[in-house]
């Protein structure tokens, strides 16, 4: 029996007074406890969608249901179960870290719980900085404070809007670990990103959005399997100046100044064409030193998808 999604988005669109359509009728279900990555270039509509779900922006059309309740009708409840980590820090620079986080918890009417807030700050490596003023913190530490604020009222759903934009690699990996720990506690996490590696590292499912349109939603593994191509590079013993016409049916590319042939193929296809290609090379007397195969990344898939829709 399928359980009700913790977040259900139906026909949500947004057209601004200027006539700009930021979102085009988005339908999306998010299951409790999953990590969902919304992937798209800057300006694709990711932040608009998050802002609508979090009650910051009013949709032009559509409905949002949070844990079975209409988020626009029962907005107090919706906001109490949602945490948002925005891209920008907007808070009093002269406040201390602990005061900022404690204030955020109080905004949601939660009773003071210093033990819980201490755990949040420790998880984010902020406990030693609890008395520091925000203006004294580095950009990476400020980003951690944003996450602490969002977690202060113990939300069931956490939105991370470009959580690691502009932060160093070590902080990015710290955040990835934190996200996995939160999921273990049952928190549902939706993150927007244009870092492909972030979606590849963390997400259970990936949604691809571009120009306000949700192009597809797939389990990450299925997406990689369905759309992923493999490529084989053949290191030649002698360089070529051009691909011989006898090899035209394989649509090969000559790379590395003629020292390698690249063949892109569908790993899921019944016939990959590799055995016949290697036989043809042998028949032609083309010697090679090495073969190397690799699979396409989520980035390759994303670029292909966006280019396909733009064509």
Folded structure, characterized:
The chain is an alpha/beta fold. It folds into 2 domains: 7-225, P-loop containing nucleotide triphosphate hydrolases (Rossmann fold, 3-Layer(aba) Sandwich); 229-295, Alpha-Beta Plaits, CATH 3.30.70. 33% of the residues lie in helices and 28% in strands. The chain is built from 10 helices and 14 strands. The chain has helices spanning 46-53, 75-81, 97-107, 114-123, 139-151, 169-184, 196-202, 220-227, 274-283, 298-310; strands at 7-15, 21-30, 35-39, 61-66, 69-70, 82-85, 157-161, 188-193, 205-210, 213-219, 229-236, 253-255, 260-266, 288-295. The strands form 3 sheets. A 6-stranded mixed sheet has the order 6-7-8-3-9-10, with helices on both faces. Strand 7 (157-161), helix 6 (169-184) and strand 8 form a beta-alpha-beta unit. The longest helix is centred in the middle third of the chain and has 16 residues, at 169-184. The chain is elongated. The two termini are 41 Å apart.
